Amino acid sequence: MLSAKLTSNAHGQDSSYFLGWEEYEKNPYHQIDNPNGIIQMGLAENQLSFDLLESWIKNNPDATGFKKDDQSIFKELALFQDYHGLPAFKNALVRFMSETRGNTVTFDPKNLVLTAGATSANETLMFCVANPGDAFLIPTPYYPGFDRDLKWRTGAEIVPIQCSSSNGFRITRSALEDAYQQAQKQDLKVKGVLITNPSNPLGTSLSLHELDLLVNFISTKNIHLISDEVYSGTVFGSPNFVSIMEVLKNRNLVNNEVSKRVHIVYSLSKDLGLPGFRIGAIYSGNEDIVAAATKMSSFGLISSQTQYLLSEMLSDRKFTKSYLSENRRRLKKRQETLVKGLQKSGIRCLKSNAGLFCWVDMRDLMKSKSFEGEMELWEKMVYEVRLNISPGSSCHCSEPGWFRVCFANMSDETLAQAMQRVKSFVDSKKNNHNRRHQILNNARRTRSLPKWVFSLTSTQLEAVGQR
Q1: Residues 239, 105: one domain?
Q2: Sheet of strand 348-349: strand arrangement
Q3: Which range marks the domain in which residue 430 is found?
Q4: Do 233 and 306 have their domain in common?
Q5: Which part of the chain is the Aminotransferase class I/classII large domain (predicted)?
Q6: For residue 331, what are the CA distances in angstroms to 276, 347, 372?
Q7: Do 373 and 446 lie in a common domain?
Q8: Which of 24, 56, 117, 455 could form a disulfide with 388 if both were Cys (CB 3.0 to 4.6 A apart)?
Q9: Which SS3 state, helix, strand or coil, does residue 143 take?
Q10: Is the peptide bond before 275 cis (omega within 30 degrees of 0)?
Q11: Longest distance between any two alpha carbons in the chain, whole Å
C-alpha cells in the first residue's frame, strides 16, 4: 500500500557515513556529562566563528527586530512572498559570492535562483538537466550525500571518475574519458559532470589545469558542468581558489553556448556557518534552467525573515570582509592543529588548503590492505576509540584506507581529546605488535615452546603476551 520510492533502499541511509552519525547520536561526547562518549568528527560544520556572527547581531538589533529605518516591517515579511526571493537579499548574496572569490568575477542577480540549501540546489539541477536513467560523472572521492541528493528522487545515475592518490586525487583527461566510456558501456546517456570545488572530502581546490580540462571535456561532449562551490570562502592556503566562472571569463566563453551548460551551486552553510538557515542558490546563464528552477523553488523556499536578516548582514561590507579574513585564519590554525596532532601518531594527511576537514591516510593502521580492512578499522575507531570519522569507501574512494576527518565543529579542548584518543590507539597497536614479535623471537631462540605456538593467530599471540 506504499509507493516504490518509499520502500526502496535508494536513499543511501545504510552507508557507513550515515551509520556513524547514528552511533554518535546514541552516545554523544560531552566534556562533563559524557566524557567517554563518541566525538563527532564526521560533521562538516563550521562552528569556529559564531562569535563574529553573534556580535554583529547584537550590534544590529533592527535586523533581528524586523525594522527598517526604525519602522516595523514585520507584516510585510510575514505576508506572502513569491518564489523569486527578496531583491535586496539576492543583490547582497551575489556581492558576497564575488567577495568569497576575491572579486575576480561578478554575478548577475537575474541568473540566481534561491533554494533551501545546496542539497535542494543540486537536486533541482538534476531535475532540470537529467531524465531518469541519465548519468552524471563525478570525480572520486566525493561527498557521500550525493548518492541521496542527486539520485534518490530524480532517478539519475552517478558514474565515478576514478582519481588516484598517486597524483593527489587530481582529475586527468584519461580518467574523464574512462568514466565516459564506462557510462556508455552501461547504456547510460551522460548529461554532465559534477564537481565540488573546493573538494569535499579532499579539502583541496581544483587547479586551473583541471578546470580547463573540464571545460574542454564538456565542450567536446556537448554536456553540462555543475560546479558545487559551497566551500569557496573557506580557502585558507595556497593555491587561491579559482571559480569556474573565472575560467569562462578568462577564456571569453561567457554568454556563449558553453557557458549556458555551466552552472554553479552555492550556499551559506559552510562559508558563513549557517546550515540551519537553509540558504542555497543556483547560478546559471541558461535562461531556461533559471526559469524552471525558479518554479521548482516553490517546493523549498527560504523564509522572508531569514532573507531580510541576511540581506542586512551581507550588505555590511566592512563586516563581511573582516569575517572572511578572520574565519580563514581560524580555519587554517585549526587545520594545522589537526595535522600536527595526527603526525604525532605517525598519521599523515593529504596536503589541503580549504574546507572543514582533512583527507587522512590510515592505510598503515589496517590489518589487511582491503575495503574489509578499512571497515574493520572504521568500526574500531567508532566503537573503541569513540571517534566518528567517515571511511573512504563511503566517499567511493577507489583505494582503501583513507578517511575524512572534520575539525571545525568542536572546541579546541574536544579536538585535543580526540587526538589523545588516536595516539593511545596507535601506541596500543604498536605495543601489541612489538609484544607479538618478542614472543616469536624468544620462541625461535630458545626452541623451548611447543610447535603449536607457531600456529597461533595474531589475536591469540596478543592474549599470550598480556598474561
Answers
A1: yes
A2: 348-349, 357-361, 402-406, 390-391
A3: 426-465
A4: yes
A5: 39-422
A6: 20, 20, 33
A7: no
A8: 24
A9: coil
A10: no
A11: 92
